[in-house]
Amino acid sequence: MEGSEPVAARQGEEASCSSWGAGSVNTNLPNMPTESVEIDDALYSRQRYVLGDTAMQKMAKSHVFLSGMGGLGLEIAKNLVLAGIKALTIHDTEECQAWDLGTNFFLCEDDVVSMRNRAEAVLHRIAELNPYVHVTSSSIPLNETTDLSFLHKYQCVVLTEIKLSFQKKINDFCRSQCPPIKFISADIHGIWSRLFCDFGDEFEVLDTTGEEPKEIFISNITQANPGIVTCLENRPHKLETGQFLTFREINGMTGLNGSTQQITVVSPFSFSIGDTRELEPYLHGGIAVQVKTPKTFCFEPLEKQIKHPKCLIADFSKPEAPLEIHSAMLALDQFQENYSRKPNTGCQQDSEELLKLATSISETLEEQPEVNYDVVRWLSWTAQGFLPPLAAAVGGVASQEVLKAVTGKFSPLCQWLYIEAADIVESLGKPEREEFLPRGDRYDALRACIGDTLCQKLQNLNIFLVGCGAIGCEMLKNFALLGVGTGKEKGMVTVTDPDLIEKSNLNRQFLFRPHHIQKPKSYTAADATLKINPQLKIDAHLNKVCPATEVIYNDEFYTKQDIIITALDNVEARRYVDSRCLANLRPLLDSGTMGTKGHTEVIVPHLTESYNSHVSEPLF
Questions:
Q1: Which pTM was predicted?
Q2: CATH number at residue 235
Q3: Region entry Disordered: which residue ranges (predicted)?
Q4: Distance between CA atoms of 591 and 37, rounded to whole angstroms?
Q5: C-alpha dihedral, 96 to 102 to 103 to 104, nearest 10°
């Protein structure tokens, strides 16, 4: 990148508000080593269990370029550094604005006053998340005249806040390299988001799931072409068409024992294999064991995928939504190309122009999706804004795709993902334009998405958060960005966790640093959250939530709360909190993770099933 040298964060340097952006100069990223890298098991133990040593080694040797240090780019950077890649370059050409305080959790008011470059402002805060990751920043212009040859040193390029025409150019460059550089782009416009992946013509994945091979007990195999295998006691096999199985311990149809067969799913309880007509009749017994085989994924370039998109359906209640949003987003890209700006909030003329562009663009797409007027209208209305929880979700997915790209583990996204929060605005009916206009404070980006009335409701909420682990830290960060519990007369976040911080927590619980080890999670998390938003009113406790503490968390306490949120790691505690919420008619939000899987559940009294009413609880 001619004309600018990336700035590298000094490891171990105090990252105070006044020191962000200062650092030593490092002109070259280290070459990707071929020797084995020692993995700090005390830090990465949980992640190592999920990914395995091979993937961890690949991550520890990978270099990633990330452009755009808005709220979405920062989420991705935070996740990648916590995960433990080798080196990350963060790029941005914009100066910090008051608007950014409501979207970027590593900026402070001094950065805005000093008009620091966004990448330089957050550099040290990102770097201190993980001393094993080499983090540098760059602020040179990235445009049509930029020589892209500097990208050849990276294994993956991630773009945010880059116009579509230039995304195409960078994507073409990444594909021209040997091996191709993995390409990811992500954007958020108000309550709408887009994620695109291109890992080259042939991308081999060694393990698509990361799970132990499945074993299926057999009750019957037909003599037919193809032979149909039925699971014992109609237990679901949870297999996918195209997978391979080996067979053993079959009585009767012994010719299958030791053989490997590719299967086609017939039903949740049966699957077909090859021709079994020449084999002996099946008698009883038998086990089919899944065989892990490499799988090659074929990606198409961005230019082609724009007109022939392969979209993942995120919400099966709205299968038509991805293509509708795709055409609307392309119209927004064209609008920005034409006018060098986004549509103005509530501007009827801009909305009509966006609708014309969407109609025209839809006709050029392979499937010619019908234009959804409501999607286009709300995209035009909210495009100026930014919804922090949406950034957390999309940033998490985008980061996971980067890890897939550099490790070759887990099935990648093929190739578009659209996530939206339209339900929020659909409940508003026909709001007044003034509701969404900026007021000159840190919540303007949020206000442009949901209106001032909802912003005030968030500020006046009383929230009880149980647990300050990985999910709890993310919740607190989102509360701070949303202004939850910041009302002048009402609103409070109460958080409790009896645990102390351990080194293994630092890999996932981003509010904690090495010097916090053996300090209380709740107090430390509360202090860190106040640095994100000093207006937050937060009360931190060290108590367990259990029958022994009902003198503290009594009925009066629960009835004062608007929402109870659990970020727990065991079923027993969830059951207890659910019983207290049910007794006091309080809504409960529950979340949990296990490896690469997660769940979240909204439990509302007299409307949904309670947690204790589940036939079977989530496993995490």
A1: 0.90
A2: 2.40.30.180
A3: 1-32
A4: 34
A5: 50
| Dist. CA 89–CA 77, nearest whole Å | 9
- Note every long-range contact of 345-352, with CB atoms under 8 Å and residues 24 or more positions apart, other chains counting: 345/381, 345/382, 345/384, 345/385, 345/433, 345/436, 345/437, 345/448, 346/381, 346/433, 346/436, 346/437, 347/380, 350/380, 351/376, 351/377, 351/380, 351/381
How far lies 357's CA from each of 164, 538, 564, in Å? 15, 46, 44
470 and 607 in a single domain? The answer is yes
Q: Which residues contact 431 (CB under 8 A, 6 or more apart)?
A: 425, 451
Nearest Cα to Cα of residue 135 among 77, 71, 184:
77
Of 291, 310, 333, the last residue of a domain is 291
Residue 387, judged by CB atoms within 10 A of its CB (0-12, 13-18, 19+), counts as buried
pLDDT of amino acid 28:
40
Same-domain pairing of 495 and 602: yes
pLDDT at 298: 98
- Neighbour-count burial for 155-173, b at 16+ CB within 10 Å, e otherwise: bbbbbbbbebeebebbbeb
Residue 503 belongs to domain with CATH number: 3.40.50.720
Q: Which two tokens stand for residue 276?
A: 């079994």
Spatial distance between the Cα atoms of 265 and 263, rounded to a whole number of angstroms? 6
Instruction: Please list, in sequence order, all residues whose beta carbon lies within 8 angstroms of the beta carbon of residue 1, skipping any fewer than 6 positions away.
Output: 138, 140, 146, 147, 150
- The helix or strand, by DSSP H or E, that contains position 16, with its residue range, turns out to be none
Q: What's the structural domain count of the chain?
A: 3
* C-beta separation of 298 from 415 below 8 A: no
The CA–CA distances, whole Å, from 531 to 16, 109, 501, 536, 572 equal 10, 10, 19, 9, 33
* Cα 474 from Cα 620, distance rounded (Å): 17
CB atoms within 10 A of CB 306: 20
Beta bridge partners of 187: 194
Nearest partner of 273 among 281, 282, 264, judged by Cα? 264
Question: pLDDT value at position 36?
Answer: 77
Look-up: residue for tokens 């014992």?
232
The answer to whether 335 touches 343, Cβ cutoff 8 Å, is yes
Contact 285, 218 (CB under 8 A): yes
CA 196, chain centre distance (Å) = 13
What is the 8-class DSSP label of residue 593? E
Strand, coil or helix: what is 395? helix
Domain that holds residue 71: 44-205+386-416
CA–CA distance, 121 with 106 (Å, rounded to integer): 8
Q: How many Cα neighbours within 13 Å face the side chain of 517?
A: 10
Separation of alpha carbons 485 and 534, rounded Å: 11
Query: What are the two backbone dihedrals, phi and then psi, of residue 163, each rounded to the nearest 5 degrees?
Result: -65, 150
pLDDT of residue 18: 31
- Kindly give the parts of the chain with pLDDT less than 50: 1-5, 10-33
Query: What pLDDT is recorded for position 614?
Result: 80
Tokens, residue 218: 């057999």
Sequence-ordered list of residues with C-beta below 8 angstroms from that of 319, at least 6 positions apart, any chain:
313
- Who's near 341: CB < 8 A, 6+ residues apart? none
